[in-house]
Amino acid sequence: MKKRLREKLSATLPHEELGQVYNSFDIIGDIAIIKCPKGNTKNAEAIGKQIMSIHRGVKTVFAQTSPITGDFRVRKLKLITGENKTITKHKEAGCIFKVNVEKCYFSPRLSHERARITGLVNSGETVVNMFSGVGCFSVIIAKTVAQTKVFSIDVNPNAFHYMQENVRANRVHDRVIPMLGDARTIVDAKLQGAADRVLMPLPEKALECLPSAVSALKRGGGWIHYYDFQHARTSDDPVEKTKTKVAEKLDSLCINYAFAFGRIVRSTGPNWYQTVLDIQVVDLPSKF
Hints:
By secondary structure, the protein is of the alpha/beta class. Helices cover 32% and strands 30% of the residues. Strand 8 (149-154), helix 6 and strand 9 form a beta-alpha-beta unit. Helix 1 (2-9) packs across helix 3 (44-54). The longest helix is centred in the last third of the chain and has 15 residues, at 238-252. Mean pLDDT is 91; it is low at 16-21.
């Protein structure tokens, strides 16, 4: 599809401008979101129309005009072509998710991770999702794995609203407990020692919240799935750099742990990567 997009654009864009077109874009439900080089939306309408001609289900194309920022993880969008709407329904793993792309964080690029983590969860587990957004990890786990309970936390009231809708729409209201607020505050007050598994899919906050994630685990231990953004040059290993940073934090907590698995989830920019570590924690000391 990337090649087709550039091939079609070659008829309307000069060669030097064609080379600036980003190779990828996100499709969330029937909304596509593109990035424009250096915020230049000059050719965005042509790009948007070509996306709609290739992906017939796309009804709206936005240009992302700011980074994803803040505690609510939102970005500024500019309508390029199509219907002027920001709410859509996205299908994944047999579930349907309602999302407002302007007011909530959602990444279709994490679909592989959602499937991978779901495949690791055992029947009967209790999961704490510290940064759940509109509930994708939480709902898919509850829908797929029998007898699971998921405490699904997010600080963004808009994401919490859609999380509640998605829990009801996917009929997992008896297994997913939506919780609005700061993850550390909620875990420290209500969920210490509750979880077999903790999800931390917010790289910007994961390191500072790691002690709370550990305290959420049952005293016999469990699993933490830790996500990070890592800068790495060609000679560096982003996963190893993540391990070094996390090991320093965990060592300060004086706990027994092992890095069972790590991988690059995706590239997020020149020399920047999103990474994930699956961390096994055993025999927590009584102070936790």
